[in-house]
Amino acid sequence: MMKRGGAVHVATTRRRHKGRLYQTHLLRRTYREGDRVKHQTLGNISHLPPQLIEIIRAALRGQEFLPVTEALEIRRSLPHGHVAAVLGTLRKIGLERLLASRRSRSRDLAVAMVVARVLDPCSKLATARGLRADTAFSALGEELGLESVDEDDLYEAMDWLVERQVRIESKLAKRHLSEGSVVLYDATSSYYTGRRCSLAKFRHPRDGKKDFGQILYGLLCNREGCPVAVEVFEGNVGDPMTLGVQISKVRDRFGLGRVVLVGDRGMITEARIREELEPVEGLDWITALRAPAIRKLADEGALQLSLFDERDLAQITSPQYPGERLIACRNPLLAEERSRKRESLLKSTEKELDKIVAATRRKSRPLRGKAKIGVRVGRVINHYKVAKHFKLKITDDGFTYERDTVKIASEAALDGIYIIRTSVPEDAFDAETTVRTYKNLSLVEQAFRSLKLIDLKVRPIHHRLEQRVRAHVFLCMLALYVEWHMRRALAPVLFDDEQREVAEALRDSVVSPARRSPKSLRKASRKRTDEGVPVHSFRTLLKDLATIAKNRVRACGTKKVEASRAEFDVLTTPTPMQRRIFDLLGVGIGP
Asked: Between β-strands 213-222 and 227-234, what pairing exists: parallel, antiparallel or unpaired?
C-alpha cells in the first residue's frame, strides 16, 4: 500500500558497464516511516527527452512555468538581413566617411536614402515612412537611429548632400582614378513626371515617354565600370555638348593631367575632337567612326575588304585623320545580325507599302492625289528608316516601288565592320587593347540599365526644384556605387561571371563577341553553383536576406514581476546560404 505524503523528485543513477556510461532517471517519492527515510519508485522516465526530464525535475523543485504564449511575446518583426548586408557594405567601403568625416543627422539621412534606394527604390515620402518607428517596413531606421523622420527631413538631407557632391566625387576620383587612367563616359535621359522643373525639356525620348519632359545626365566611370561622378543637364542638351563639362571635371576638379577619355561615336564627334579634345595637352581619347565616314573610307580605297581575309582586325591610315590611328574590325556575327535586321525591316516596309498600292487600285474610293499618297508613303518609310533602299514612283493616280538593289548591296558589303578612332599612341595601347578599351563602354550601358530599369529606378522623377533633381540622381549614383561593390563580392552566388579573365582568354579575338566562362555557363544552366548552392539575381538575393528578421521580444513573467517586463531583440537564425552571402561580403549580420 502506497504511503501518503512525502516529496516527489527525479533521481538519476549512473553506472558503467563494459566501458559505457548508463544513466537511469527515476521518478521517486521520499517519505519518512518512523525514524527511517524511505524511497518509493513511482516510474522510470529515462525514455523521455533530456530537456523534458530537466523540466520535470525543475517543476518538482517548485519552479513555476508559463505557456510560451504567455511567457514571451513577439512585439514586432522587421526585415533586417538585407539592411545589414547593404549598410554593412556601405560602411566597409568607406562611403559613409566619404559623405562626411563626422557623424550627423544629415549624414545618417543621406546614408539611409542610399541604402533604401538599393533595397527598395520608392518615393521620398515612402522612404520616410519606411524609416519611422511606427511605420517602418525594415530595420534600417532603427539601425541608423532614425526613428522620427518625415519627407521634409529627407529633402533637407538631399540639399545637404548635393552641396557636398563636388567634394565627394573628388574623393571617389582619388580612390578610383590616377594619372593615365581610362575614363569611360556616356549620357542618357529619363522622363520627368512634373511640369515645374527648369531642367525638364522636351526632346527625343529614350524611354519612349513622348508626353513627358526629359532630363539628361552623364556618368563617368573608371576602366572597370565603377561609377565616379554624375552630372545632370537640361533635357534638350545634345550628348556631345556635355563633353566639355566632363573634361573640365577630370582635369581641374580631379587634377588629372593625363587621361584617356572613351566615348561612343555619338559623344566624341569630329567637332568635339577639334574644339575640346585636341587643344588639351595630355588628354587622349578613343571613339568610333559613324557609318558615313566608314563608307567614305571604303570609297576612297583606304578600307578594303581584303584586309579581313585572314584577320578580323587591321590598322589603316587616311589623310583625313592625320596623327590618329584607325583600327578596322569585322565581326561576322554582327554582319549576320545586321543583314537579318535589314531584311526584316525591308519586308515590313514592303508589307505596308503594298497596302498603299492596293488603296490606289481599289474600285471604291481609291486613294488619289500625289500629296495624299506621298504623305502615307512617307509615314511608312520614315517609320522603318529604310527609305534609302527603295525607289519610289508617286503619281496623282498611282504608286509603285522597288528595292534599290545597288544601294542595298553597297551597304551589305560593310556589314559587321566598325572602325575605332583614337589619339592614343601605339606604344601605349596596341590595337587589341584599344578595341578592348572601347568595348568597355558596355559597362556604362550596364550601369544605365541598373539605374533606369532593373535595380535603382532613377525614374520617374517627381522633384520640382533643380537642386533636388540633381540630388536625386546623385543619390542613385551612390547607390549604384554600393551595388557595384556588392556585385563584385557576391559574384560566386549571382548569375554574374566571377571569372571574367578566364572568359576573356577563351575569346578567339578581341573583335569576337564576349564569352562567359565555363563556370558561369554551368551556373546559368543548372541555377546552382558547383557547390550546389542556389544562384540568385541581385534582387532575389536581397529578398532572401530580408527573411532574416529582427524580432522585438518581451518577457512577460509572472504577475509578481509583470510591472518590470523586459524587451530584447532576437535575430532569425540565418540559413547556410545566408551565412555564405555575409561571408562573401565580409560584413556582420548583427548583434
From this structure: antiparallel
